[in-house]
Amino acid sequence: MSRKVSRVCLAYSGGLDTSVILHWLLDRYDCEVVAYTADVGQEEELSGLPQKAKETGAIDCIVRDLREEFVRDFVFPAIQGCAIYEGTYLLGTALARPLIAKHHAEVARETGCDAVSHGATGKGNDQVRFELTFRALAPELEIIAPWREWDLRSRSDCIAYAQKYAIPITATLKKPYSIDRNLMHVSFEGGILEDPWRAPEEEMFILTQSPEAAPDTPSEIVIGFECGAPVSIDGERLSPADLLHRLNQLAGSHGVGRVDMVENRFVGLKSRGVYETPGGCVLHAAHRAVESITLDREVMHERDRLSPRFAELIYNGFWYSPEMEFMRAAIDSSQRNVTGEARVKLFKGSVQVMGRRSPVSLYSESLSSFEEDGGYDQADAGGFIRLQGLRLAKPAGD
Length: 398
Description:
This protein has twelve helices and 14 strands. The protein is α/β, with parallel strands linked by helices. The chain has two domains: 7-65 and 93-164, 3-Layer(aba) Sandwich (Rossmann fold), CATH 3.40.50; 184-350, Argininosuccinate synthetase, chain A, domain 2, CATH 3.90.1260.
């Protein structure tokens, strides 16, 4: 027996899954449906979505432009915290989900909905990310996850359902992989990529040029940071979304930012994913370069101990949790002095730091120089080493 809800807010893309879900909700729950779409830079045509949603049965369709908020409040904090999951994944999808879900809950409340619904499958991470956010920010809302409830089990089942009920779709059974895109990255999963031995096809990539086909002449750019957040490219101040968009173009043209990995999903499965994160890759390298001259050694080491856990919390969907609040406060504190510029070279799929400078640099050329003492008494190092070695020396008589 279906639980009783009167109005459902559905995360809607206009694709096969959410078009079928919209109709299924109307049929299964005999309710009204408000469609909600988040623009996080997926570069899809969104102007026709409200009409399509209404033609499929929605009473309204709300489209929110979240691009600036996404980069400013989610991507940049991940850069500041050096959040890289399992040493490789820059968390593009994982960073977008809590933002999308936050506004999903807001739209649901504003439009008088008593439930929310999403199209994430029961095998993936996204169901966790969406629903943990709902529970943290709007626990009163009922959550409907069709892929865990209905008897449709495949893409072909969804296409057959759409044909049966005359739901307008453009999908076909030919689907070599699934794609998720936002301003941070493009991800590819499933289909032919489920064989971890099979190399991705070159035609698949969207943001990046093949490194082999990239320009034979490198490009150098200067990225400016204030308190750990990127603010400029080559001296030109840009909004967060514009800055990342431009970096994606610059780095992507040089083949920078491709990742192919098998990762451990939160639900317990291993999954092969291929990612393009050109701008994010450059920002991580440039940010680390500025940190190298502005961040105290012990603060850096403590932040680096937090980074894997920070990445894990993001990946697992705990953006709105007490432990994340604690960690964000520590990371924000570490970034107060991270202001300066990094010069990086982009060439044939690589990012190389060429220089770094800061008005608040902790680096002292005179102290570090092999040509002068600069106030450093080298004889002091002897006592320092002896003290460090006390616990390493074997006691007499052993």
